[in-house]
């Protein structure tokens, strides 16, 4: 069993995800998204998709991205 890096839950079938050389252990995709998904530079929501990149920042949608 391994403890989830986000919530600390001990889980017998955890998943490991490696991003930029760092490996994390999670008990669910939900916990993985909370830790690893980028946040919108305007509203702070986690971006679970492509998002919009503008001026070196990432935004959840065109509405949040500057004109």
Automatic annotation (TrEMBL):
It comes from the Bacteria. This is Metallothionein.
């Amino acid at each position: 069993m391994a403890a989830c890096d986000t919530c600390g839950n001990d889980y017998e079938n955890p998943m490991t995800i490696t991003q930029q050389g760092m490996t994390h252990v999670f008990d669910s995709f939900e916990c993985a998204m909370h830790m690893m998904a980028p946040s919108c530079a305007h509203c702070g929501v986690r971006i679970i998709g492509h998002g919009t990149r503008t001026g070196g920042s990432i935004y959840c949608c065109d509405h949040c991205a500057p004109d």
